[in-house]
């Protein structure tokens, strides 16, 4: 259970920390993905994400962009999303789930 007294950023870091501990590393590919994910992590920061229909929502970036994609946390939904970079900022593309799962889907 995550401590309710933590800040939003600290809660996100705790969720990601649990994912890292529980990540499968049975193959070289899984190990490589985990290492790349850990290298891409940033301290969570607020960002505005665009959704279909022109809606926007304040979310939290958790990985640096690779020029095309980044992983963000959707606080209202309680899960992570893979976003594509656009002229208008990160755009949700409907890939949702764990942070590592979203990252690995690229």
Describe it.
Helix content is 32%, strand content 39%. The chain has a five-stranded antiparallel sheet. The protein is α+β, with helices and mostly antiparallel strands and 106 residues long. A hairpin with a 5-residue loop joins β2 (56-63) and β3. The chain is built from three helices and five strands.
| Largest sheet geometry | 5 strands, antiparallel
Structural class: alpha+beta
Radius of gyration based on Cα positions: 13 Å
Termini, distance in Å?
29 Å
Strand portion: 35-45%
Order of helices and strands: HHEEEEEH
Question: How many H/I helical runs?
Answer: 3
Percentage of residues in helical conformation: 25-40%
Strands ordered across the widest β-sheet: 1-2-3-4-5
**Low-confidence regions:** none
Output mean pLDDT. Answer: 95
- The global form is globular
The count of β-strands is: 5
Keywords:
106 residues, alpha+beta, five-stranded antiparallel sheet, 32% helix
What are the SSEs and their pairings?
Layout: H1 8-22, H2 28-40, E1 41-50, E2 56-63, E3 69-74, E4 79-86, E5 89-97, H3 99-104
Antiparallel strand pairs: 1-2, 2-3, 3-4, 4-5
Explain briefly what this protein structure is.
By secondary structure, this protein is an alpha+beta fold. It contains three helices and five strands.
């Amino acid at each position: 259970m995550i401590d309710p007294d933590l800040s939003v950023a600290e809660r996100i870091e705790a969720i990601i920390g649990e994912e890292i501990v529980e990540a499968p590393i049975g193959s070289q590919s899984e190990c490589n993905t985990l290492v790349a994910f850990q290298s891409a992590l940033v301290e969570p920061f607020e960002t505005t994400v665009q959704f279909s229909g022109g809606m926007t929502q304040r979310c939290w970036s958790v990985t640096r962009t690779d020029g095309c994609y980044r992983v963000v946390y959707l606080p209202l939904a309680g899960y992570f999303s893979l976003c594509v970079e656009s002229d208008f900022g990160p755009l949700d593309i409907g890939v949702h789930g764990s942070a590592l799962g979203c990252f690995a889907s690229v």
